[in-house]
Write a structure and sequence with these properties.
single chain; alpha/beta; TIM Barrel
């Protein structure tokens, strides 16, 4: 899990799930406090020091949340505990993101809500993942990838176009920060960064 990160300038990785870092084995022990919620975890981290803390947000509502009010209240608790920003779960309809931000702002949340963009390296894989995490796959999106399972070149071109359209529409609406889910595949994200005017040094 950690191998190769140091070359990219990342020197420390915190695994909150409890997975032992590669090569550490049984010497790794999860934190004993047993935080009951993300808000408690944020408060625990904030008590240690002035960290930059990002938390999760769900433009289509967390699948286990009973209502939108409960979902937004949970996000607000994370911010009240000291979170710096929220990064959203993947979404494919920008309207879902804009409505979510409106709900958050109406509840008094002022911190940044960064859109989480998922480039579609494999439509079948991403669609399966989306169904498990409560993100919907619009019919128009499924139609664009229909019949491309055995045509990786066309699939890649369509994926690039879809991600570019989504990202540039958000830019046109004033969004200036993005989080890209790479799934360890950086090429498409690097192309999107160029579209945004960002290049490696």
């Amino acid at each position: 899990m950690v191998r190769g990160y140091r070359e990219a300038g990342v020197t420390r990785i915190v695994a909150l799930r409890g997975d032992p870092p590669e090569g550490v084995g049984q010497a790794f022990v999860p934190h004993p406090d047993g935080y009951k919620s993300a808000a408690e975890l944020v408060a625990g981290i904030r008590a240690i020091g002035d960290f930059d803390i990002s938390v999760a947000a769900y433009p289509e509502k967390h699948p286990q949340s009973p209502s939108w009010d409960a979902d937004i209240d949970n996000l607000k608790r994370k911010f009240d505990a000291g979170a710096t920003r929220a990064i959203t779960q993947m979404f494919f309809e920008n309207g879902d993101y804009f409505r979510f931000v409106d709900r958050a702002r109406a509840a008094g949340i002022t911190q940044p809500i960064v859109p989480g963009i998922q480039p579609i390296h494999s439509f079948k894989q991403i669609a399966g993942f989306a169904s498990r995490c409560g993100a919907s796959v619009p019919a128009w999106l499924a139609a664009r990838f229909e019949g491309l399972d055995d045509d990786p070149e066309t699939h890649a071109l369509v994926a690039a176009a879809v991600a570019a359209e989504q990202t540039m529409e958000l830019v046109d609406a004033g969004v200036t920060e993005f989080h890209f889910y790479t799934l360890n595949r950086s090429n498409l994200v690097l192309a999107l960064a160029r579209l945004l005017g960002i290049r490696p040094d």
